[in-house]
Amino acid sequence: MIRLNHKDFADWQKLYPNLDLPSELLRLDIEYQPRQTEEMVYHHESETELPE
Q: Crossing angle of helices 21-31/6-15, nearest 10°?
């Protein structure tokens, strides 16, 4: 995880003036969020079953 403070964000905007930095950072945040697949949901549900 990368956290930018206000100074770092301003510095990045100066380095990359042609980028829409807030949009790009939001896109990356969305892209790298943990994904929950059907297999993961099935695995989780099977773990919660009580033994017989």
A: 110
